[in-house]
Amino acid sequence: MKYILMMNTMKANCDPFPGWSKQDMKGHIAFMISLCKDLGAGGELVSAEGLAFPAEAKLVRAGKEGEPITDGVFPESKEFLAGYWIVDVESPERAYQIAARASAAPGRDGAPLNMPIEVRQVMSGPPPDLL
Amino acid sequence: MPAPSLDIRTEHLLRELAPQVLGAVVRRFRDFPAAEDAVQEAMVAAALQWPEEGVPDNPRGWLIQVACRRMTDHVRTELARRRRETTLATQAGYPMPAVNVEPESDEDDTLILLFMCCHPALTSSSAIALTLRAVGGLTTAEIANAFLVPEATMAQRISRAKYSIKTSGVPFRMPSPAERAQRLRSVLHVLYLIFNEGYTSSVGARLQRTELSGEAIRLTKVVHDLLPDDCEVAGLLALMLLTDARREARSGADGELIPLTTQDRSLWDQEKISAGVALISATLPKGSIGPYQLQAAIAALHDEAPRVEDTDWPQILALYEVLKRIADSPMVLLNHAIAAAMVHGPSTGLKLLDALDADGRLKGHHRMDSVRAHLLEMSGDLQGASALYRVAAGRTGSMPERNYLLTQAARLRE
Description:
The complex is a heterodimer.
Chain A: E1 2-7, E2 10-11, H1 22-41, E3 45-50, E4 59-62, E5 68-71, E6 79-80, E7 83-88, H2 92-103, E8 117-121
Antiparallel strand pairs in A: 1-7, 1-8, 2-6, 3-7, 4-5
Chain B: H1 8-29, H2 32-53, H3 59-85, H4 106-117, H5 124-135, H6 140-147, H7 151-168, H8 177-200, H9 210-226, H10 231-244, H11 270-283, H12 291-304, H13 313-326, H14 330-344, H15 346-359, H16 366-379, H17 382-395, H18 399-413
Helix pairs in contact in B: 1-2, 1-3, 1-4, 2-3, 4-5, 5-7, 5-8, 6-7, 8-9, 9-10, 10-11, 10-12, 11-12, 12-13, 13-14, 14-15, 15-16, 16-17, 17-18
């Protein structure tokens, strides 16, 4: 079963790493890299991406003639996807376990962030039989 | 195999030889993970060389020779590495290949490999991947592609599976007669999962991954040829053929799901149906009845009905009665409820669903909601049916099924 683990932790106009030292940054990055490595080595990683900061993010809609109309000013409270993992695992419980590990990524002074990770199943093909 | 110039016959030959060659190499070197890699390399070498130079007179011998050469290289590298690490270790080095050790029999080797790859200690995804590579002769890239995961991920999954077999110390020999029945059940289960993956591993609008279903059928045929008297092996093969026969009719032009009841039956593969029917008809009278045989018999009854209204529901119901006694599965109870509704009317089916609710094992499962919706619709409660189709749509993990259920809900609201 494939699951997407989404880190919806970024705000449009906020510093995502407030007051972090260089050591904190390094610890955080090393954690993320080793998480990815472990998922790969365990044969569970489908993909993982980090996204650019939302400062330059645009909301696009088609106008009357199909032209793109962009909208880039977001309210302070809107949360953005910071990055995601797609994993292929045996059970939902395993996906939650991975999400919990990601959630506890180290932040300021190495303390676990315990950030919320949204876990959603990635849809599969049709079931084997349908009466 | 990947080389585009490899013709179908050679490809089949290679895939057929893969487990035999692996068996021979494992017997000589007694290192399953390394032997498996060496055979994979020999297969790739064959796929590159044979189209240019022609298939050798003794293709099996050619593959064994190339794989053994790779193994010898591997052993030398290992020895050199160990020598660098510690001079003492060379004493206890790798066993060198014994000369002229012939396999006991290719048939046994293929079975032993299947028993190994489907070992109950492995997770099902590992067992599936390893079986496809070591017994099916597929490349890692092909398997990764079929499961829509990166090649590196699949390579890791296979490698971990091999090493957990190695560390668990499973010997390369036939399981004891006492163990054998249970181990064979694991093998059949893995083959059944591979067959089903052929349907479910696709994503979004992309429907069936037919390669996997075809490969499952091929491997089950191999097992059936090796164990022609085993009724459940025959039952599983018949079930696969009878299910696969409906493949073309299962989806519409835009990839939408078409349930059995509304399929265009002229698209069903009559050749597969006759083969499946013949096989299950020859097997059932032998008397050693099992779940796969019963499911095949049910599939045969569906396949033999020229129109949906010709379906022999009383007979299907009778088979589900037997199946639910020998297989403790809530899914069987669910299908039994459908069959009961088709014979005795929706209220009988709905009562059985209530009993299944109390059972609790299918709590929150979308199939409970979709079946109940279907029975409510039969009973004339269109509003209730529409609402439950909508609930089921929210619970399924399958995109084509969700689209189908949402369409059903919308149809009943009109």
